[in-house]
Amino acid sequence: MKYILAVDLGTTAIKAAVFDETGKECGSKTVEYTLLTPHPGWAELEVQTYVDTFISASHAAMERAGVTADQIDSVGMSTQGETTICLDENNEPLRPAIVWMDIRAKEEAEYIEEVFGQAEIQKHTGQPGMDAIWPASKLLWLKKNEPEVFSKTAKFVQLNGYFSYLLTGTLACEDSILCTTMYWDINTRKYWPEMMDFLQITEEQLPVIMKQGESVGKITEEGANLFGLSTDTIVNIGALDQACGALGVGNVRPGTFSDSTGSNLSTVAIVDELILDPSMQMPCFASAIPGKYMLHAFSSGGMVLKWFRDVFCELEKKIEAESGEAAFDQINREVQKVAPGCDGLIMIPHLQGSGPPDTDNNQKGVYFGITLAHKKAHFARAIMESIAMVLRRMIEAMESLGVEVKQISVLGGGSKSAVWCQLKSDATGVPVNIMSTTESSACLGAAILAGVASGIWASPEEAADMVVKADATYVPNADVKEVYDKLFEKTMKLQNGLKVFYEDSSFRE
C-alpha cells in the first residue's frame, strides 16, 4: 500500500492528513497558531511558526495513521494564497510573512491600478483590478516602507514555494497560487514582464513555475532531516487551498459549485475556458486541474465566527475545556433557537474588507438593528446569515456570466454545522451537499495532485470520481424563502449605503 502525506497550509492552522492509494484518510492532525496583528489591517506570522507547525502536524498525522516515513510515497500541499515571504541570498526569511488577508497596501493597490488600468490588469491576470492583499501590492509597500528588506530580498515566494525549497531544494510554484500575485499572466501562464519591470523585480527573484500534478523532485537529505521524512518521497507543491478543496469534494467539471467556509468564505465554479467578467466583479483563476479555470470569489467567513467565539464566548470555551463539547457546537445549538431573520438583526461580516464580487478594502464589520430583545445567540446567527448573504451574492455574480449553479458542495469548518448548511440552502435556494470527503477536502485535493505526480492516479478527474461521494443533502425550505429574499435585499442596501462612510477618511482612522 502506498501512502500520501497531504498538508493544508491554512490561515490559522495547518492540517496534515495521510491517505492511502484508494483515497481513504488514515489519520490526521490539525495544529493552530495565532496571527500577529501589530497594526489595524495588518496580519503577519513568523516564518518559523509555519515550519514548526508543519512538522508537528505531519508527525502527529503519520503517528495516528500508523505509517512511517519510509511508507510515504509522496507529499502534497494545499496552500493559502497571497501570503508572501522575503528570502535573502541564503534563502533565509528577512521578516515575518505578510499573510494574505493583510490590507496595509491599499494605497499601493490603488496606485498600481491607476498606472495600468483595470482593463489591462484583468486582461493579463484574470483579476478585475488590484487589491491590497495581492503580492504585487505588498511588494510595492515593502519597497516604499521597508526599502532595506526589499533591496536585500533575493527571492519573493509564497508559502508553498518556501516549503518546496525546504523539502527539495527547489523554489517552485504553480498557476493557481500565482494567479493573484499580479505579476503572472493567465494567458501565457508565465510571469508578466511589464508588471515585474514596474515593481523592479526579476524572474530570477521568483519561483520556478510548475504544472499542477507535476513532481518537483524527491526530498533532499537536508529536507528529510528537517521534516523527519524519507529521501525516496516525491514532492508536489499542490495548488491554492480553495482549488484543492474544490478538487477534494469532486468539483472537477462545469455545473458544480463548491463553498468553503473556513477562515474565509471561498467559492469555486469550474469552467473550461478563460472568462473575463465585463462588469469587473468576478475574478478568474487557474484551477487545480491543468488547463482548466475557476471563477473564484472570497470574503470573510469562518474567521468572523471564530472572532465571535474568541472575544465573546469565554463561558463556552470554559465548558469545552471541562467537558469536551466544542464551543462551536454550543453556539450552533443556541443559533437553532433563533428564528430566520434574527428578529431584524443584520450583520455585515467584512471585518478585513470585502472580496469579489464587491471588493472594497475599506469595508468594516457592522451590526445593524440591535434592540433590547436581541441576545447573544442572535448575534451568532446574524454572523451565519451574513455569510449566507455573501454566498448568495457570489452565486448571483457567477450566474450573470452564464455559470449554472445546480448544487453546492460544502467544505471547511462550516460544513460541520448542520444549522449553517441548512441556512445556506434556504438563503440561496440551492441544494447543499455534504460530501464524504468534506472535512479533509483541501488535504485530499493536495493528496490527489501528489498521487498524480507519483503515478498513483492518471488524472485529478479520475481520482475525484473514484473517491468522492455525497453523504447528506440539505434542500431549501420554501417557508423561509421570503424571509431570506428580504434579508438579502436589506443586506445589499446596507452594505452599499455604508460606502459613503468608508470613503470618508475620518471613519477609517
What attributes characterize this protein structure?
509 residues, alpha+beta, Nucleotidyltransferase, domain 5, six-stranded mixed sheet, 19 helices, globular
Verbal overview:
With 509 residues, the protein is an alpha+beta fold. The protein folds into 2 domains: 3-250 and 443-471, Nucleotidyltransferase, domain 5 (2-Layer Sandwich), CATH 3.30.420.40; 299-435 and 478-507, Nucleotidyltransferase, domain 5, CATH 3.30.420.40. The protein is 39% helix and 21% strand. It has 19 helices and 23 strands. It is globular. It starts with a strand and ends in a 7-residue tail after the last helix. The model has no long low-confidence stretch (mean pLDDT 93).
Low-confidence stretches: none
Number of domains: 2
Radius of gyration: 22 Å
CA-to-CA gap between the ends?
Answer: 58 Å
Classified in CATH, the superfamily of the largest domain is ATPase, nucleotide binding domain
Structural class: alpha+beta
Helix content: 25-40%
- Strand line-up of the largest beta sheet: 17-18-16-15-21-22-23
Please tally the helical runs, counting DSSP H or I stretches of 4 or more residues.
19
| CATH topology value of the largest domain | Nucleotidyltransferase, domain 5
Mean pLDDT: 93
The top-level CATH class of the largest domain is Alpha Beta
The major β-sheet equals:
7 strands, mixed
Task: Give me the CATH architecture of the largest domain, please.
Answer: 2-Layer Sandwich
Strand percentage: 15-25%
User: How would you sum up the global shape?
Assistant: globular
Number of strands: 23
